From TrEMBL:
CDD domains according to UniProt: IscU_like (cd06664)
Molecular function (Gene Ontology), one example: iron-sulfur cluster binding
Name of the protein this chain belongs to: Iron-sulfur cluster assembly scaffold protein
Pfam families: NifU_N
Entries under InterPro entries matching the protein: NIF_FeS_clus_asmbl_NifU_N (IPR002871)
GO biological process: iron-sulfur cluster assembly
NIF system FeS cluster assembly NifU N-terminal domain span: 2-60
Length: 67
């Protein structure tokens, strides 16, 4: 298991399940709102950064993929 708070780990795990088998084009369209909706529970503004960390990492990886 990686390092990070419970919210970031849970969100990253859910994101991995969500994008498994998804096209790169569709994955590139994922927005922060999509990630927060995927979690299915309210996340305080202070913890939204934790919840979005996996999405930010995915976006960085997809940018490298397109270079």
């Amino acid at each position: 298991m990686g390092n990070g708070c419970v919210i970031s780990q849970a969100a990253a795990s859910m994101l991995c399940q969500q994008v498994d088998g998804m096209s790169l084009e569709k994955a590139r369209l994922l927005a922060p709102k999509d990630m927060l909706d995927l979690l299915g529970c309210p996340i305080s503004p202070l913890r939204q950064q934790c919840a979005l960390l996996g999405l930010e990492a995915l976006r960085a990886l997809l940018r490298q993929e397109s270079d």
